[in-house]
Fold:
Amino acid sequence: MSSGKKDFDAVTSMRVIRDRLSAEIDGMTFDEEVRWLASRELSDPFLKRLQEKAAQQTLAPGGGRKRA
Structure:
């Protein structure tokens, strides 16, 4: 393992991104979160599938979920 300094810290980067997104959606209902996600242009195939799945759940009978 190299003892050199890291140019990029993936864990720190992930935490910064997660915290920013969490602050942006804080207090939203599930339906608001779905609309927020649908309004984003996604290039990542995994995130695109999540977006589509969330939209399907909202459209299904009894769609959406309740938060505790």
User: Anything to note?
Assistant: The longest helix spans residues 10-25. The chain has a mean pLDDT of 81.
